[in-house]
Amino acid sequence: MHFVSYGINHNTAPVHIREQLAFNADVLPAALTSLQQCPAVVESVIVSTCNRTEIYCHIADDYDHDAVCEWLHQFHQQPPGSLDEFIYHYHGTDVIRHLLRVACGLDSMVLGEPQILGQIKTAYSQALHVGSIDKSLGRLFQHAFTVAKQVRTDTAIGNSPVSVAFAAVSLAKQIFSNLADSTALLIGAGETIELAARHLYDNGIGRVIIANRTIERAHSLATQVNGYAISLSEMPAHIAEADIVISSTASQLPILGKGTVERALKQRKRRPIFMVDIAVPRDIEPEVGNLEDIYLYCVDDLHGIIEENLQSRRDAALQAEEIIDTQVGHFEGWLRTQDAVPVIRAIRDNAEKESERLLEKAKKQLEQGMPAEQVINELVRTLTNKLLHEPSRQLRQSGFNTDINLIEAARSLFNIKD
Length: 418
Prior knowledge:
six-stranded parallel sheet, 3 domains, Beta Polymerase, domain 2, 14% strand, elongated, alpha/beta
């Protein structure tokens, strides 16, 4: 069996293509269950964020791993092979390296951003819940978590305050010179919106409105930034109040349309609104960007902002790559040890069976009145002979056949220095 991975991300596809292969949280359990029904797939994990969709699989050796890519197209009702030009593929060791780089934030739009690690942990938990992950893929993901923590601890990869949320707030500061006079409407209450709320709060935003489908979650976040919460259904009525709109929900359809924004602009008497749509699929209809006095940005538009303040992270990334090189080797070493597990188990089973048989014999001899010292001596001598008989016979035969490799292997196995 071996690892394979298929994916699409911000480097290989624009947002309208990524939307077609995204997995909503509600559909993910069914997707994992469906993927596990592929004869080739032994284990699977699906990572789906606004910037990437990736499938990690443990595949049986006698199956074609292209079945995973075929399943991806079929599940999203795309014509076979229609999105191949946007999809990347890794195999074997390259899967290990790629996952470690992703977990450490080295493959993110924002170099070194920490959110991806939490998203991978969520994907891992979902796979555990569905039962699509077992020993090998599970060990790989656990290893990725450990390496990501090491990189965070040993390098400065996370020191610079750069993220999609930070980039959005930085752009807002360029458009509105004084945030204290501005009102921000944040749609959603996930991690990205929480980061945006904190950045806005730290930069002195005047008012913050949190709109979310679950009002309790919105209220919880709003209290942290001196804002107030509304339900998602109330959101259209508050658009006119907002100078800044940042949206990141898990909706499969746009929640903010052109008509709603046009009405808000009339109420605002054409005062501009800065909008950032971080969601994939998008929350704001693209046509909204055609309206006068609307400055609409999606995640792909933030590249230029993100480029700033990254040099220290690039330096740290070089150190991180060295750590990853070492850790890839460590994990490959663990994989190789798994080939020896059945042999070790068989050796131990044989030894334990022989020990139990001889122990029972020794107990009967003691019950029959034989001296304890004699019983122990015979037990040790017999067990030693039993355990070493076959290895000794094989080594004598290898010497007769001038098979030096087996003799050298035995020296290493039993740590014989002479």
